[in-house]
Amino acid sequence: IVLSRPSTEITTYNAVKLGAQDNTTDPSFFSTSDGSTYFQGDAYNNQAKIDMFCFYENTTSHQNFTTLGAPGSNITGIFTGGTAPDNYDVKNVTYFVKTILTPAQFDAVTNDEGILQSFDPSNQFKKAKNLQTGDVWAFKTQSGKFGLLKVTSVVPETNGSLEMAVKIQK
Q1: Is this prediction's pTM over 0.90?
Q2: Which residue, of 26, 71, 87, 117, has the greatest Cβ tally within 10 A?
């Protein structure tokens, strides 16, 4: 890929920890615009900022395991109550692409050139599922920003968590 524009700066968030739906210690919702994490009620009050959330699902019909999705991913019944993403008025969609980048290659990214080269629109999905430590995923937010995330820790189950480093266009 040849970029016909100068590469742009990126913002890095080194330790974003998200809890799955039954985790009462770690927030489940993430805003890539400012690196903030939110518990469900606060996320509901900041719908326009929510780009992704963490959940765990292992049912007969859905074996997603530790997964990232977004309010616009049509994922229902995971979070419950009036503040669940199912009830959002603003449902941002984030698209995810599993990359072949290694964690070291992720660490070496200093501008958006590597990010843009890693996002393959023909292989984009509305969720990043069965996340494992060392996985690197490219993503594109509703606002059109591209980023990369590197999974640094996974604790499976509905009360588990995910930790990741994130690099996103400024």
Answers
A1: yes
A2: 71
